[in-house]
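User: I'm putting together a small comparison set for a docking exercise, and I want a reference complex before I start. The sequence is below, and the ligand is 4-nitrophenyl phosphate. Could you produce the 3D structure with the ligand included, as structure tokens?
Assistant: Of course. I'll restate your input first, then give the structure tokens for the complex.
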Amino acid sequence: MKILFVCTGNICRSPMAEGILRNKFGNAGIKVETDSCGFESFHVGDNPDKRAQAVCGKYGIDISRHVARLFRKQDFDDFDRIYVMDSSHYYSVSRMARSAGDMTKVDYLLNIIYPGKNLPVDDPWYHDLQAFERTYKQLDAACDSLIEMTGPGKEDTK
Ligand code: 4NP
């Protein structure tokens, strides 16, 4: 199973989601490849925001080594599922899709918990550490549901 998370700058939400999921899958002994990327080039090459690192670190998750990169068309081939954080990313990904088939891999991350609602994961970038904590909780809950969907014995486990 290869899972890609997508946000805007690839320094807050998506690297946090990637770290949380990798940690949960690792603890459950499930093989998964995860990565994350963004759509704005401001932070390409940067490590995650210090506040994102701090909140993940508090829960024993090290995301310090991730290096921000942009979404690319190849990601449609390289990943089984592509989870976006909000409608802006869904739109940006859809503009790069080469076929309707590409978009079958794409969904809003929170649709895992609230199917079909297309709810956003809150962007903590402009806010304080508490906002990062709230975003962490959203991502953590979504990743718990994701692991239930893809855990051992589930038909879509790869
Ligand atoms: P992210 O947060 O998309 O969760 O990584 C942001 C990081 C940087 C910016 C926006 C959102 N920015 O505009 O630089």
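Residues 7-13, 38, 40, 42-43, 123, 125 surround 4-nitrophenyl phosphate (CB under 6 Å). The mean pLDDT is 94.
User: Thanks, that's exactly what I needed.
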